[in-house]
């Protein structure tokens, strides 16, 4: 169950003017300096400051409600349980191994790390222990070092293929969210390939995206953004962003031959009224970020949004969200795929009590050989078949896992 979320009207910093609200030149300069470093040749189109962090956290609350509070898909949970159980079964020190962390999870484009801190609670409820790592191009939004607790944060460009190859297959579950404003159509495939470089065989790759082509602001079923959203979508096309990234990501995972691929779509129209109102606040803040970012980058960037001057853009921004009855909508795409491979083993579970220390020490010794009773075979008519002697070699490895091999003098015997 998701508790009620209090909607807070979060605005960007403003300096009051005599006639209307004006934005501080210092703020524009800060935005410009922070956003010139990005994955692509184009500057990042949103902000990476404290106000943007608040908007990202609000957006996370919206997506969490849309997902019913379950941030980790069920197939991923099942796989993580296998990884943890396999790690514990391979350990000789049973009591201590229950505290070890065998699972490694990475969140790309992590921002404030709020997704990682949220799944940590879900993992604890499931009895799963994991090492959590957050990666992002900028470190502006990372929590202060003294407040990161047991989550690690690192800077990483998702298009830096040599760096991903250097990291190698490390993680059992990789999550990435809302890269649609960052990557071009061509760069999406590079980003996905890089993610697979650091994903272990049998691990899951999980994208959550909100395609720009499915954004809308409506009133009584009629577009009501005043042209702001339409200009933003046109600008995205000029920048070669993928307005249908959700479907294209899924198609590429299928093309790569990933296992257990899933594509789930959740339309905000199906959600409760409180979630919709949260999105109205989020949409206004997001559009304000796009416009202030464009103003900071100069006249050419403004023209891409269809604004001839900064004054026109500011006037239009001041009117956002003022018309009652308007509603911002989007469709959340959750795309999942499993990397080929992985280790599978047959395990026999028994209900015996925990082994004593002496038994654990004995289990580390050489395997014992036990003679089993001769199996009985049905005799075929008119044929004298010699029954082979079968021996079972049983290594004692811990409490739950039992491996066995059948040794026979006849290679064709069963």
TrEMBL record:
CDD domains the UniProt entry points to: AdoMet_MTases
Source species, domain of life: Eukaryota
Region Disordered, annotated ranges: 355-391
Compositionally biased region (Acidic residues): 358-387
InterPro entries per the UniProt record, alphabetical: SAM-dependent_MTases_sf
Secretion signal span: none
Protein name per Swiss-Prot or TrEMBL: Methyltransferase domain-containing protein
């Amino acid at each position: 169950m998701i508790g009620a979320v209090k909607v807070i009207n979060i605005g960007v910093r403003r300096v009051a003017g005599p006639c209307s609200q004006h934005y501080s030149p210092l703020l524009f300069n800060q935005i410009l300096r922070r956003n010139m470093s990005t994955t692509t040749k184009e500057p990042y189109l949103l902000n990476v400051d404290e106000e943007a962090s608040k908007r990202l956290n609000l957006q996370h609350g919206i997506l969490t409600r849309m997902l019913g509070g379950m941030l980790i898909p069920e197939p991923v949970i099942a796989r993580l349980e296998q990884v943890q159980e396999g790690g514990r079964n391979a350990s000789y020190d049973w009591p201590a191994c229950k505290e070890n962390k065998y699972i490694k999870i990475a969140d790309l484009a992590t921002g404030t790390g709020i997704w990682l801190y949220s799944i940590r609670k879900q993992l604890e409820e499931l009895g799963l222990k994991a090492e959590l790592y957050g990666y992002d191009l900028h470190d502006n939004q990372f929590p202060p070092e003294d407040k990161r607790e047991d989550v690690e944060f690192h800077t990483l460009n998702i298009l830096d293929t040599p760096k991903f190859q250097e990291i190698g297959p490390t993680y059992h579950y990789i999550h990435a969210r809302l890269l649609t404003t960052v990557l071009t159509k061509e760069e999406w495939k590079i980003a996905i390939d890089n993610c697979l470089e650091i994903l272990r065989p049998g691990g899951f790759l999980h994208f959550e995206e909100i395609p720009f082509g499915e954004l809308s602001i409506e009133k009584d079923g009629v577009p009501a953004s005043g042209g702001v959203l339409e200009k933003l979508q046109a600008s995205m096309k000029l920048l070669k962003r993928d307005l249908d990234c959700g479907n294209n990501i899924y198609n590429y995972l299928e093309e790569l031959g990933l296992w257990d691929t899933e594509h789930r779509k959740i339309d905000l129209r199906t959600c409760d009224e409180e979630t919709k109102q949260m999105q109205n606040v989020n949409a206004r803040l997001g559009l304000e970020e796009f416009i202030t970012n464009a103003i900071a980058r100069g006249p050419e960037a403004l023209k891409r949004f269809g604004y001839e001057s900064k004054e026109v853009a500011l006037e239009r921004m001041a009117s956002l969200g003022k018309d009652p009855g308007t509603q911002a909508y989007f469709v959340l795409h959750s795309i999942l795929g499993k990397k080929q491979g992985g280790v599978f083993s047959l395990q026999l579970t028994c209900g015996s009590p925990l082994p004593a220390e002496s038994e654990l020490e004995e289990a580390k010794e050489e395997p014992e050989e036990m003679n089993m009773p001769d199996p009985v075979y049905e005799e075929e008519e008119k044929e004298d078949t010699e029954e082979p002697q079968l021996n079972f070699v049983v290594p004692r490895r811990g409490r739950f896992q039992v491996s066995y091999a059948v040794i026979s003098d006849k290679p064709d015997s069963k």
